[in-house]
Write a structure and sequence with these properties.
Length: 733
């Protein structure tokens, strides 16, 4: 054992003894600012001379102050890092800060006086200091180790004038949480049901606090090594007080730092016991993974997460789109919920990039089987946009602010949900798929305001002007600046209403307008308006805008689809794709079922009410089948044979339930249509066994025969049969 190690152990033993005897230990961590740069400029030997001077000056100063303390110890931590320990007498009348702060400038001056003969710059000392107090519940070794670690963090971090005040506040909370900690709850609204889905529990400090916000509070707790006990207290408070807000079947969202989940103490089941006391189960709780720091070891973290999943807890990934939350986190953790961060929601109705990102997350979440929560929704336009883009749940001030009792949901938000309109990005035949955000201004806004907006948003070239939420005109960037660029344009228009420069006759189309129709109308405008954007509305309310370039691209894609055999009316795969899908399933030697869907007496309906109404019914049936396909957990395929004939291929084991759901949806969707009493659907279901060798053509014959039999039943009907294959049919005789 070398002398330094022996010396350090002797120091530690002496300090531990003082702590056990009830004395405090003052810990001072010292280093030289950017010493590596000094070494780079002057070399290793010069830096060694500097370190010798620093160590001697510190030692000399300690000798001068020895009468004030029971003991002082200097420990070199390697390089330019030193730790000094002071053990004050029990009757010492001054505090650590008042003793250390005046000492630093003279120490630096003496060091620089001695180094100036061989170094052409001043050396700057940086310190971090803490007081290590004895605690009956903690060992001396633990206390001293944490004190040195905290002094090191203080040394390396930016100065914080409120450090000790904040630290005292944390310790007060840990000592007496009931008087310093409270739990507020913010509702999460279910967009589809228009009801509260659950509440997120949010920690709040009681009374005055020196923390600007709760996020800063948790960061500081982590900084001083108290994150785990603080999170434990917050979690207990949230669960204990949850009965004030939760109703049956509503979920409780709890924020959890990733570091906590891998802590063995957290896995001990204390949270589960507390839930049981409040008549809650793990399945009533969503653990929100709040990534204040990056997850370094995904395999270990995923294993810990699986432990909680197996108990019944649901998992949400918080702050998606901000901080450390990443696509890798989504792929690795496979959460039940994605919570989109406020930074992506703020002003989303005016930002095409944010619009596109949320659209992407909406599509992604539904494909990977998790649900999307937009948090931080604060305004009506934001609410309208996130609902349009297909989020499942909404949270934010526009719904309700956090409260210590059950909040009442904002009636305006419920009204928006009630009249919700979700853009269906899979309906490729309408301009819904091409919509981009349209920033809106009031008709009384001045030209100056629009000018400032255009300058702050160089990528925005088209805005809307509204009155009572209805579009009355639009302004194009180029035409706007053309008007201001005239000789007297600025002085003439700057402080006047924007209605003077708006186009009051823009092309406005309902959101369900087919792309082909929109393209024809756009191209039939005058040359001056030919490439102006189109305003998209829904029941006279602005939804967004569509670029002419997007229309042209969509038309080209439609033509390609048609060329590839897709049905131009529904956009669904046609006969070639249907045959390929059937052959693929035959080759896989698995059992599957065909549902041959056909409208009863469609020709009569089409002749009576016109082809437009007939096309609407066909599209409605196609949409119902597509929805059933999307909601199925089985491998499904929907094809459009032609006219009113569709083919639904599935491995669904509960075919009767599936048929009933399709018929129920068809009745609901068509009951308001003209001639609804004449509309009905026939579903012929043919179950094919595994390991047969029939061709798609032979299967189609059987399906057509079964369809004919099904259509003999009046009204909406379905018939399910298992295919009985004749021997000669198998060998093709």
């Amino acid at each position: 054992m070398n002398n330094n190690l022996q010396c350090n152990q002797s120091h530690e033993h002496k300090l531990h003894q003082f702590l056990r005897e009830g004395y405090s230990v003052w810990v001072l961590y010292i280093d030289i600012v950017k010493f590596h740069e000094v070494e780079f400029r002057y070399g290793y030997k010069t830096c060694n001379r500097i370190l010798e001077i620093v160590e001697k000056e510190i030692s000399d100063y300690l000798k001068e102050q020895v009468h004030l303390f029971k003991t002082t110890l200097l420990e070199c931590r390697g390089g330019d890092d030193y730790v000094v320990y002071f053990v004050p007498h029990s009757q010492t009348s001054f505090d650590f800060q008042s003793f250390i702060t005046p000492w630093l400038p003279p120490l630096q001056n003496r060091i620089n006086l001695r180094t100036q003969e061989f170094v052409l710059e001043n050396i700057h000392i940086r310190i971090g200091f803490v007081e290590c107090k004895p605690q009956a519940s903690r060992s001396a070794d633990y206390l001293l180790y944490n004190a040195v670690k905290e002094a090191f963090r203080l040394n390396k971090s930016e100065p914080d004038s409120q450090y000790y005040e904040r630290k005292d506040e944390i310790h007060q909370l840990l000592t007496d949480p009931n008087n310093h900690l409270a739990s507020a709850y913010q509702p999460i609204l279910d967009v589809k049901r228009g009801e509260i889905f659950g509440f997120e529990a949010l920690a709040r400090m009681k009374g005055p606090t020196c923390f600007p916000d709760i996020a800063d509070f948790f960061l500081f707790a982590e900084k001083i090594g108290e994150l785990y006990p603080i999170e434990t207290l917050c979690r207990r408070s949230a669960i204990f007080n949850s009965s004030k807000v939760l109703k049956p079947r509503e979920l409780l969202f709890l924020n959890v730092d990733p570091q906590i989940l891998t802590d063995p103490d957290f896995a001990s089941g204390q949270t589960r016991k507390l839930l049981a006391q409040k008549n809650l189960k793990p399945s009533d709780v969503v653990l929100e993974i709040t990534e204040r720091s990056a997850i370094q070891d995904f395999p270990t973290f995923r294993e810990a997460l699986e432990h909680y999943r197996n108990q019944g807890y649901l998992i949400a990934l918080d702050d998606v789109g901000a901080g450390y939350s990443s696509l890798q986190s989504i792929a690795e953790l496979q959460p039940d919920f994605l919570k989109i961060d406020r930074s992506l929601i703020q002003l989303i109705h005016t930002d095409p990039t944010k619009w596109a990102l949320l659209e992407t997350f909406s599509t992604l979440s539904h494909r990977i089987g998790c649900r999307l929560i937009a948090e931080g929704v604060e305004t009506e336009p934001e609410m309208q946009t996130v609902v349009q883009l297909g989020v499942d749940f909404v949270q934010g001030y526009f719904i309700a602010r956090p409260s210590f009792v059950r909040s009442e949901v904002n009636p305006q938000s419920l009204e928006l949900v009630k009249k919700r309109y979700s853009i269906n990005f899979h309906d490729n035949n309408t301009i819904r798929t091409l919509v981009e955000p349209l920033p809106l201004f009031r008709s009384e806004d001045s030209v100056r305001i629009v000018d400032e907006y255009f300058r702050a948003h160089p990528n925005i070239w088209f805005i809307g002007v509204s009155e009572q939420k209805r579009i009355v005109g639009v302004i194009h960037r180029d035409k706007f600046y053309s008007s201001l660029g005239t000789r007297y344009g600025v002085s003439l228009y700057t402080d006047r209403p924007i209605t003077l420069l708006m186009d009051s006759t823009p092309l406005m189309l309902e959101d369900n307008t087919p792309i082909e129709v929109a393209s024809t109308l756009a191209m039939s405008r005058s040359d001056a308006q030919l490439y102006d954007g189109l305003v998209v509305i829904h029941q006279q309310m602005a939804v967004g805008m569509v670029k002419v370039a997007s229309l042209i691209k969509a038309m080209a894609a439609t033509q390609i689809k048609i060329a590839q055999g897709a049905n131009p009316l529904t956009g669904l795969p046609g006969n070639i794709a249907i045959e390929q899908e059937m052959q693929k399933r035959i080759n896989n030697n698995v059992s599957f079922a065909l549902i041959y869907a056909d409208l009863n007496h469609f020709k009569l309906y089409n002749d009576s009410f016109g082809f437009q109404k007939g096309d609407m019914v066909i599209k409605t049936l196609g949409e119902i089948l597509c929805k059933a396909s999307e909601e199925s957990k089985e491998s499904t395929f929907v094809g459009h044979i032609g006219g009113d004939d569709f083919l639904f291929i599935t491995q669904n084991s509960d075919l009767e339930k599936l048929c009933k759901e399709i018929i129920f949806e068809f009745i609901a969707k068509t009951e308001q249509m003209v001639g609804a009493d004449q509309l009905s659907v026939a579903l012929a279901v043919l179950i094919l066994p595994a390991n047969h060798s029939l061709t798609p053509t032979q299967i189609a014959k059987h399906a057509a025969h079964l369809k004919k039999e099904t259509k003999t039943t009046p009204g909406n009907a379905y018939r399910i049969e298992r295919l009985q294959i004749q021997k000669n049919e198998e060998i093709g005789i």
